[in-house]
């Protein structure tokens, strides 16, 4: 059976939280910025947040632009029914607006988190996106993409990344995302290229010298529409 992209439902919230935490909890930045994370509490908080976002009873994830069209998408294992990958795509008809970028803001700081690192990253993310004039026009934006580690390298992530391409190409609209080092190669395979000057680097050793992770980087990426 082949894989397919479907829309998330409110009943997926707990599993989406588990997939997200499983996909990010072993990454260097997570280990440094959330050194004493309570996993059970994090899952519970994320579950409620996702459920309300998907059913519309709470704020949307990552971007609060009232003009946007937001799409919570998943790929499930055709045999087990488990969610393999999860993504959030936004159609932004008015382009990037700093005031609606929730990823560039820091709300409640989880207990034990390194607040300085969280604030620095959020603020730098906003600066990175705001200075790209192409993002000011209407475009598609991938704000979140995660695959459960046990379902990696099965093509689920690629399906989610390519989800808006047909419409984007037909309408001549670009797609944007901000890539971690882990996902960079996969995004390149899907046709995204690095945007010159769109690099954010954070030296994790400033907050934890013992782990010696060094610097981690994110890069803004663009996929121009293809002629059809």
Write up what this structure looks like:
The chain has 228 residues and is an alpha+beta fold. Helix content is 31%, strand content 25%. Strands 1-2-3-4-5-7-6 form a seven-stranded mixed β-sheet, sandwiched between helices. Strand 2 (69-76) and strand 3 form a beta hairpin. Helix 1 (13-24) crosses helix 3 (39-55). The protein is globular, with a radius of gyration of 17 Å. The model has no long low-confidence stretch (mean pLDDT 95).
Give a short summary of the structure:
The chain is built from 7 helices and 7 strands; from the N terminus they run E-H-H-H-E-E-H-E-H-H-E-H-E-E. With 228 residues, the chain is α+β, with helices and mostly antiparallel strands.
Write the layout of secondary structure elements.
Elements: E1 5-7, H1 13-24, H2 28-33, H3 39-55, E2 69-76, E3 83-92, H4 115-130, E4 139-147, H5 156-162, H6 165-171, E5 175-180, H7 184-189, E6 193-203, E7 215-223
Parallel strand pairs: 4-5
Antiparallel strand pairs: 1-2, 2-3, 3-4, 5-7, 6-7
